[in-house]
Amino acid sequence: MLFLAAEAEAAGGFDPWDIFMILFTIVIAIGFVRLIAAKQKNLFAIGFAGVSLAVFLFLDVLMVRNWFGLL
Fold this sequence. Notes:
The chain has helices at residues 2-10, 17-37, 43-67.
């Protein structure tokens, strides 16, 4: 178990998956804005998209902080 933890610590920095995380965040943000701007509001979809966007934004902040070694 400790070997896996040490490997995870050493793996810091940029990972190709980070690009997909940023792209997913952008897609969720576009969907959220479109839901808010729609004439007929779907409150469940707005709430789900809002929570998803908040989670992805939080993960993006952690990801960028990891790039700069601030974690």
